[in-house]
Amino acid sequence: MGGMARTTLGRHCPVERMDEQMTDQAAYIPPKVWTWAPGDGGAFANINRPIAGPTHEKELPVGRHPLQLYSLATPNGVKVTVMLEELLAAGHHGAEYDAWLIKINEGDQFGSGFVKVNPNSKIPALMDRSEAVPVRVFESGAILLYLAEKFGAFLPKNHAARTECLSWLFWQMGAAPYLGGGFGHFYAYAPTKIEYAINRFAMEVKRQLDVLDRRLGETQYLAGGEYTIADMAVWAWYGALVKGKVYGAGEFLAVDGYKNVVRWTDEIAERPAVKRGRIVNRTFGDASEQLHERHEASDFETKTQDKLQAAR
Fold it and tell me: Which of 13, 253, 276, 280 shows a CA-CA span of 20 to 30 A to 270?
């Protein structure tokens, strides 16, 4: 399993010769000083920019629960809603939350209120209003760790197991940009298909899948025998990948060959809390799997898009 036995990526490109595989486009010579060309950047050109800060004034809504989540059901957003639903399923009633939809394609993440919670203008972002002074938490891995420590759950107490869990959590944080911003961008979203770029990142994603497959051939979960925030973080990205739910690249990457990853993915997907968490703030796919906002546990039964559409 993994890429060791395979010698090709892309259509006919040997891995060993990837440096020689360039497109027919004229070679790009970087200028001495880079300048931004608005509109250049593929599917997300309308929201990409080289500066930070808000673009408009807009305060964030606040619900009645202690935890206020501002998010969208991308893999990074799913990590946190799965964690919150797992906490509630485990009996941590203080984990009740309001999940507000942030439409990143429309630039909601650049509103002044959102930037106050996350100066990096990325989802998800969390405000914990159960504290005397509200606490902001941004970056999905930081949110998972914050919640795990706050509630004493899904993070092993044994020092060695805790360290293993955090190692895999931070592995995901470092690895996923190669999957999303690298492979996903050039394979699915870039304005032109660049063979070298797709091959370069496909090779890295397959290497990462092999890393996971080898680990999951040794243990049930990433940190060992215990389901943790590391599994939630990695599952949201790589579980979706091997089930063909991101980029439509399952066949291209031959994901069925990573048997241990598939086993682990399917096992986690069957958890009731995961089934709930993955549809929160979801605005795409089957209407029965879209819960644009979540404010009460009963919303899963009454507020999914299929129910709302039927009531109109």
Answer: 253
